[in-house]
Protein backbone atom coordinates (compact mmCIF):
# COMPACT_ATOMS: atom_id res chain seq x y z
CA UNK A 1 0.00 0.00 0.00
CA UNK A 2 1.39 3.39 -0.96
CA UNK A 3 1.66 6.28 1.44
CA UNK A 4 -1.05 8.95 1.24
CA UNK A 5 -0.25 11.54 -1.39
CA UNK A 6 2.99 11.65 -3.38
CA UNK A 7 5.36 12.07 -0.43
CA UNK A 8 6.13 10.29 2.79
CA UNK A 9 4.45 10.09 6.17
CA UNK A 10 6.00 12.08 9.03
CA UNK A 11 5.43 10.94 12.63
CA UNK A 12 5.89 13.57 15.35
CA UNK A 13 6.82 11.95 18.67
CA UNK A 14 7.10 14.45 21.55
CA UNK A 15 8.93 12.82 24.46
CA UNK A 16 9.61 13.47 28.12
CA UNK A 17 11.20 10.69 30.18
CA UNK A 18 10.46 7.95 27.61
CA UNK A 19 13.85 6.20 27.69
CA UNK A 20 12.25 2.76 28.18
CA UNK A 21 9.39 3.25 25.72
CA UNK A 22 11.11 5.01 22.82
CA UNK A 23 13.10 2.07 21.35
CA UNK A 24 10.00 -0.12 21.33
CA UNK A 25 7.63 2.45 19.82
CA UNK A 26 10.20 3.27 17.10
CA UNK A 27 10.67 -0.44 16.34
CA UNK A 28 6.87 -0.94 16.14
CA UNK A 29 6.53 2.08 13.84
CA UNK A 30 9.36 0.97 11.55
CA UNK A 31 7.96 -2.58 11.35
CA UNK A 32 4.41 -1.35 10.67
CA UNK A 33 5.54 0.99 7.89
CA UNK A 34 7.85 -1.60 6.37
CA UNK A 35 5.08 -4.25 6.34
CA UNK A 36 2.63 -1.77 4.76
CA UNK A 37 5.06 -0.32 2.21
CA UNK A 38 4.75 3.19 3.66
CA UNK A 39 7.61 5.65 3.19
CA UNK A 40 8.16 7.34 6.56
CA UNK A 41 10.21 9.47 8.89
CA UNK A 42 9.98 9.66 12.70
CA UNK A 43 10.75 13.01 14.30
CA UNK A 44 11.52 12.73 18.03
CA UNK A 45 11.17 16.05 19.86
CA UNK A 46 12.44 15.76 23.43
CA UNK A 47 11.53 18.30 26.08
CA UNK A 48 14.75 18.13 28.11
CA UNK A 49 14.21 14.66 29.65
CA UNK A 50 16.57 14.02 32.59
CA UNK A 51 16.28 10.20 32.26
CA UNK A 52 18.50 9.69 29.19
CA UNK A 53 15.76 9.78 26.54
CA UNK A 54 17.96 12.07 24.41
CA UNK A 55 20.86 9.61 24.35
CA UNK A 56 18.47 6.81 23.37
CA UNK A 57 17.01 8.97 20.56
CA UNK A 58 20.50 9.74 19.25
CA UNK A 59 21.38 6.02 19.25
CA UNK A 60 18.16 5.23 17.34
CA UNK A 61 19.05 7.94 14.81
CA UNK A 62 22.37 6.14 14.18
CA UNK A 63 20.75 2.69 13.96
CA UNK A 64 17.92 3.59 11.57
CA UNK A 65 19.62 6.47 9.73
CA UNK A 66 18.85 10.18 9.87
CA UNK A 67 16.53 9.90 6.86
CA UNK A 68 14.21 7.73 9.00
CA UNK A 69 14.80 9.06 12.54
CA UNK A 70 15.43 12.71 13.31
CA UNK A 71 16.10 13.87 16.89
CA UNK A 72 15.32 17.48 17.84
CA UNK A 73 15.47 19.71 20.89
CA UNK A 74 12.27 21.78 20.80
CA UNK A 75 12.33 25.52 20.61
CA UNK A 76 8.80 26.54 21.60
CA UNK A 77 5.91 24.15 21.02
CA UNK A 78 7.10 20.63 20.11
CA UNK A 79 4.56 20.17 17.29
CA UNK A 80 5.38 23.52 15.65
CA UNK A 81 9.10 22.81 15.90
CA UNK A 82 8.69 19.28 14.52
CA UNK A 83 6.55 20.47 11.59
CA UNK A 84 9.39 22.70 10.37
CA UNK A 85 11.46 19.57 9.72
CA UNK A 86 8.67 17.27 8.48
CA UNK A 87 8.97 16.33 4.80
CA UNK A 88 5.74 14.30 4.58
CA UNK A 89 2.49 15.51 3.03
CA UNK A 90 0.71 13.94 5.99
CA UNK A 91 1.71 14.04 9.65
CA UNK A 92 0.83 11.59 12.41
CA UNK A 93 0.85 12.89 15.97
CA UNK A 94 0.96 10.23 18.68
CA UNK A 95 2.27 9.57 22.19
CA UNK A 96 5.59 7.80 22.71
CA UNK A 97 4.46 5.93 25.84
CA UNK A 98 3.00 2.89 23.99
CA UNK A 99 -0.59 3.95 24.69
CA UNK A 100 -1.03 4.43 20.92
CA UNK A 101 -0.23 1.34 18.84
CA UNK A 102 1.29 2.01 15.39
CA UNK A 103 -0.80 -0.84 13.91
CA UNK A 104 -3.71 1.61 13.60
CA UNK A 105 -1.80 4.02 11.31
CA UNK A 106 -2.41 2.01 8.09
CA UNK A 107 -6.13 2.12 9.02
CA UNK A 108 -5.88 5.91 9.38
CA UNK A 109 -4.38 6.05 5.88
CA UNK A 110 -7.12 3.83 4.42
CA UNK A 111 -9.76 6.01 6.05
CA UNK A 112 -8.13 9.18 4.72
CA UNK A 113 -8.10 7.84 1.17
CA UNK A 114 -11.67 6.55 1.47
CA UNK A 115 -13.14 9.98 2.31
CA UNK A 116 -10.26 12.30 1.30
CA UNK A 117 -10.33 13.59 4.89
CA UNK A 118 -8.15 16.46 6.13
CA UNK A 119 -7.84 14.80 9.55
CA UNK A 120 -8.31 11.22 10.71
CA UNK A 121 -8.70 10.90 14.47
CA UNK A 122 -8.37 7.76 16.57
CA UNK A 123 -11.46 7.28 18.73
CA UNK A 124 -11.79 5.27 21.95
CA UNK A 125 -15.54 5.86 22.09
CA UNK A 126 -16.88 4.45 18.83
CA UNK A 127 -17.12 1.03 17.17
CA UNK A 128 -14.72 -1.43 18.75
CA UNK A 129 -12.53 1.28 20.27
CA UNK A 130 -11.74 1.12 23.97
CA UNK A 131 -9.50 1.95 26.91
CA UNK A 132 -7.40 -0.63 28.77
CA UNK A 133 -5.49 -0.27 32.04
CA UNK A 134 -7.41 2.70 33.48
CA UNK A 135 -9.16 2.55 36.83
CA UNK A 136 -12.81 3.56 37.11
CA UNK A 137 -11.93 7.12 38.18
CA UNK A 138 -9.83 7.76 35.05
CA UNK A 139 -12.55 6.30 32.83
CA UNK A 140 -15.23 8.44 34.45
CA UNK A 141 -13.12 11.60 34.13
CA UNK A 142 -12.40 10.90 30.47
CA UNK A 143 -16.00 9.99 29.61
CA UNK A 144 -17.31 12.98 31.58
CA UNK A 145 -14.90 15.37 29.86
CA UNK A 146 -15.90 14.01 26.48
CA UNK A 147 -19.63 14.24 27.27
CA UNK A 148 -19.31 17.84 28.52
CA UNK A 149 -17.43 18.76 25.37
CA UNK A 150 -20.06 17.16 23.12
CA UNK A 151 -22.88 19.03 24.89
CA UNK A 152 -21.18 22.44 24.91
CA UNK A 153 -19.31 22.44 21.60
CA UNK A 154 -21.10 19.90 19.34
CA UNK A 155 -17.86 19.18 17.47
CA UNK A 156 -19.07 16.32 15.27
CA UNK A 157 -16.37 13.90 16.48
CA UNK A 158 -16.66 11.24 19.18
CA UNK A 159 -13.26 11.52 20.93
CA UNK A 160 -12.05 15.04 21.57
CA UNK A 161 -9.32 14.50 24.15
CA UNK A 162 -7.35 11.80 22.32
CA UNK A 163 -4.10 12.78 20.63
CA UNK A 164 -3.59 9.97 18.08
CA UNK A 165 -4.33 11.61 14.72
CA UNK A 166 -3.34 11.91 11.06
CA UNK A 167 -3.31 15.42 9.54
CA UNK A 168 -2.65 16.88 6.12
CA UNK A 169 0.49 18.90 6.74
CA UNK A 170 -0.97 22.21 5.50
CA UNK A 171 -4.10 21.67 7.63
CA UNK A 172 -2.03 21.02 10.74
CA UNK A 173 -0.02 24.18 10.07
CA UNK A 174 -3.22 26.27 9.80
CA UNK A 175 -4.67 24.75 12.98
CA UNK A 176 -1.47 25.37 14.95
CA UNK A 177 -1.71 29.05 13.99
CA UNK A 178 -5.24 29.22 15.43
CA UNK A 179 -4.93 27.10 18.58
CA UNK A 180 -4.01 28.78 21.85
CA UNK A 181 -4.69 26.01 24.41
CA UNK A 182 -2.19 23.83 26.25
CA UNK A 183 -2.40 20.31 27.69
CA UNK A 184 -5.55 18.23 27.29
CA UNK A 185 -7.61 21.15 25.99
CA UNK A 186 -5.23 21.54 23.03
CA UNK A 187 -6.37 18.28 21.41
CA UNK A 188 -9.99 19.30 21.82
CA UNK A 189 -9.41 22.75 20.38
CA UNK A 190 -7.71 21.26 17.30
CA UNK A 191 -10.94 19.44 16.32
CA UNK A 192 -13.21 22.36 17.21
CA UNK A 193 -11.11 24.78 15.14
CA UNK A 194 -10.94 22.25 12.29
CA UNK A 195 -14.74 22.20 12.13
CA UNK A 196 -14.85 26.01 12.26
CA UNK A 197 -12.47 26.25 9.32
CA UNK A 198 -14.43 23.70 7.28
CA UNK A 199 -11.88 20.86 7.42
CA UNK A 200 -13.18 17.30 7.24
CA UNK A 201 -12.61 14.78 10.03
CA UNK A 202 -12.79 10.98 9.76
CA UNK A 203 -12.56 8.58 12.70
CA UNK A 204 -10.99 5.15 13.25
CA UNK A 205 -11.73 3.11 16.40
CA UNK A 206 -8.55 2.47 18.41
CA UNK A 207 -7.57 0.59 21.55
CA UNK A 208 -5.88 2.93 24.03
CA UNK A 209 -3.58 1.18 26.54
CA UNK A 210 -2.45 3.00 29.68
CA UNK A 211 1.28 3.67 29.74
CA UNK A 212 3.51 0.77 30.81
CA UNK A 213 6.55 2.75 32.03
CA UNK A 214 6.58 6.18 33.65
CA UNK A 215 3.74 8.12 35.22
CA UNK A 216 0.60 9.67 33.82
CA UNK A 217 0.41 13.45 34.09
CA UNK A 218 -3.35 13.53 34.82
CA UNK A 219 -4.03 15.21 38.17
CA UNK A 220 -6.27 17.78 39.83
CA UNK A 221 -4.54 20.71 38.13
CA UNK A 222 -5.07 19.20 34.68
CA UNK A 223 -8.78 18.66 35.38
CA UNK A 224 -9.20 22.30 36.48
CA UNK A 225 -7.30 23.59 33.44
CA UNK A 226 -9.39 21.35 31.17
CA UNK A 227 -12.65 22.80 32.54
CA UNK A 228 -11.33 26.37 32.20
CA UNK A 229 -10.22 25.68 28.64
CA UNK A 230 -13.55 24.07 27.76
CA UNK A 231 -15.48 27.11 29.02
CA UNK A 232 -13.12 29.45 27.15
CA UNK A 233 -13.70 27.53 23.91
CA UNK A 234 -17.46 27.56 24.53
CA UNK A 235 -17.36 31.32 24.95
CA UNK A 236 -15.21 31.98 21.89
CA UNK A 237 -16.50 29.52 19.26
From TrEMBL:
CDD domains: DPM1_like (cd06442). It is an enzyme of class 2 (transferase). It is found in: Endoplasmic reticulum. Transfers mannose from GDP-mannose to dolichol monophosphate to form dolichol phosphate mannose (Dol-P-Man) which is the mannosyl donor in pathways leading to N-glycosylation, glycosyl phosphatidylinositol membrane anchoring, and O-mannosylation of proteins; catalytic subunit of the dolichol-phosphate mannose (DPM) synthase complex. Component of the dolichol-phosphate mannose (DPM) synthase complex. GO terms for cellular component: endoplasmic reticulum membrane. Pathway: Protein modification; protein glycosylation. PANTHER family: DOLICHOL-PHOSPHATE MANNOSYLTRANSFERASE SUBUNIT 1. This is Dolichol-phosphate mannosyltransferase subunit 1. Belongs to the glycosyltransferase 2 family. It catalyses: a di-trans,poly-cis-dolichyl phosphate + GDP-alpha-D-mannose = a di-trans,poly-cis-dolichyl beta-D-mannosyl phosphate + GDP. It holds the Pfam family Glycos_transf_2. Its cofactor is Mn(2+); Mg(2+); Ca(2+). Its EC number is 2.4.1.83. GO terms for biological process: dolichol-linked oligosaccharide biosynthetic process; GPI anchor biosynthetic process; protein O-linked glycosylation via mannose.
Amino acid sequence: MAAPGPGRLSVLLPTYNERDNLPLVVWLLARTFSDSGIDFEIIVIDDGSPDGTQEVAQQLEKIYGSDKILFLFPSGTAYIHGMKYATGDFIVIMDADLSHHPKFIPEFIRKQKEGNFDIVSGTRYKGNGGVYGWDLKRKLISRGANFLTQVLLRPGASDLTGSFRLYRKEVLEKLMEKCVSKGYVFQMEMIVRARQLGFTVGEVPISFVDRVYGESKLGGNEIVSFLKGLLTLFATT
